Structure formats: C-alpha cells, structure tokens
Amino acid sequence: MGEPRRVVPGAAPETRAPQPSVAASGLHARHSRGFETQGLQAAAPAAFFLRFVPEQARETARGPPRRGTCDLTDVPAFDASFRETLAELFAWRRDVRRFRPEPIAESDLRACLDLAHRSPSVGNSQPWRFVRVSDAARRAAVVASFERCNRAAASAYADERAALYRTLKLAGLREAPVHLAVFCDEATGTGHGLGRATMPEMLRYSVVGAVQGFWLAARSFGIGVGWVSILDPDCVSRSLDVPTSWHLVAYLCVGYPVEEHLDPELVRHGWQGPDLEACCLFER
Ligand SMILES: Cc1cc2nc3c(=O)[nH]c(=O)nc-3n(C[C@H](O)[C@H](O)[C@H](O)COP(=O)(O)O)c2cc1C
Fold this sequence. Notes:
Blueprint: H1 37-43, H2 46-50, H3 55-62, H4 80-92, H5 106-116, E1 128-132, H6 136-155, H7 159-167, E2 178-185, H8 202-220, E3 224-228, H9 233-240, E4 246-255, H10 265-268
Antiparallel strand pairs: 1-2, 2-4, 3-4
Helix pairs in contact: 5-8, 6-9
Flavin mononucleotide binds at residues 94-95, 97, 170-171, 227-230, 264-266.
C-alpha cells in the first residue's frame, strides 16, 4: 500500500514525509474511527482516498486554475434555450427507487461528483465526503439498517396510513448498482470556521447543497438518484468504518431508472397532496 496522497484541485499533488501506515483490511482497521481529521489524512490507507477522489475528472473538467478577474469573453451566455433545458432538468429530477441493474459508466459518475464538488459551502469549507459503498457485507449492513428502521417507522402510523405506508417503496438499496454515502466532515479545518460561529449547522447544510448538485448532474446523464434517510446513522457510519468526525448526511442509491415520471412518487401513490405554502413567496 503506497503513501496516502491528497489531491487538491488546481494544485500540484501534495508530497509529504513518510507517515506510519495503518494495517488495512478493507478500508480501515477498526481503530481508525478514533482518528482526528488531520491524523486521518496522514495515516489512512491510500485506497481510502484514491478510490473516490476524481483526480483526472477534476483536472480535465476544470482546466488550469483561474485567478483574479476573468476575461469577459470567457463567460458563457446562458440564454433562453439553456434556461428552458435547465427547467426541464429540474422538472424531471425525481427521487428514484427502482433501478435497472446495469452499472453506470465510471466517467459519468466521476463527472457528476466533479460537478457536486463545485457546490457552495460555508466559509468555502467543502465539508462533503463522498464514499462509494461497494463491499457486499457493508451494503448488507445498510440494507439491514433500512429494514429495521422502516419497520419501526411503519409502526409509528396507525390504521389506513400505516397500511398505506407499508405499500410504499422507500428505497432501492438492493437494486441500485451504486451506493454513495455522503458525510459531513465536522472536523474540517478548511475555511477556518468562517461563517458558522453562530450557526454551526451550516456545515451540514453545505453537504446538502452538494448532494443536490450531484442529483441534478446525475439526471443530466440519465442517471437516477434516490435519497435514503430511513437509516440509523451511527450504524451506517460504523458499518462503513469512516472517521468519527464524519456525520452521515445522505445515503444515495444511484443507477439508471426503470421508469421516468414528472410527479413525485409519494404524490403518485396517494401519500400526500401538494403543499401550497411551499410555493409561496412570503413578504415582510
Ligand atoms: C433529505 C431527504 C431525505 C429523503 N429520504 C427518503 C427516504 O428515506 N425514502 C424515500 O423513498 N425518499 C426519500 N427522499 C425523497 C423524497 O421522498 C422526495 O424527494 C419527495 O417525495 C419529492 O419527490 P421528488 O424528489 O421525486 O421530487 C428524501 C429526500 C430528501 C431531500
């Protein structure tokens, strides 16, 4: 196992003095959950980073880093036709639970991650950590967590609503070719804490923004995404053996959808109607 290497967009790969390496079976040795963030970067096995850092995608999509004022001729014109297409992208983005089994192209996945990495974040902290979950035992642990949590959630409803709940398909974990767990690195030093002294939750909200970016980017490739929150986050974090400073924000099922819809599944299956207040702009 080589030395861990962090790739910073627009910068030469970091070189570092040799560090003690962790004996790695799977992603991390069990004790790795005790690492501080900086320690993790020094000691985690290289595969932990390199498997999902889209190094080449970043280099090719972003081009050389630009600094200072742009030449205005570089700024693209987002015209009406682009806006129409963008509106279609938003309209057709659905939460998908039914996936075709075929794998998605690695380059498409990397391109979606690269776009997600351009998301805004508090103090430019970029606290998102995307983890692809390919290991069968880890996936099975997540499926088991979903089934336990879903049974508990169903039992919290009564009568007809409980019966209706049980008919809903609320995850495509077994079918989705790709699982992505998205964490917030609560110990990140990037951004030096700027912007979150009074509202620390902004760090997690920044990760939600990146998830949304990924979701829309994926749809533009014809790839469906389903967000699964009916999970025990501690159980998922333990099963994936990630650092203790990483807080689970989203667990995503990713793959090509079996079917396409313009309306949300929960509306289509009678769980709810529209919320008109959500469409309002309130004025003060
Ligand atoms: C934070 C969050 C958590 C979600 N968790 C689940 C989930 O556990 N299971 C599920 O079926 N859908 C989940 N969804 C998807 C929503 O049900 C879906 O976005 C909503 O019904 C609107 O449908 P649409 O995304 O197709 O527009 C989640 C969405 C968000 C944003």
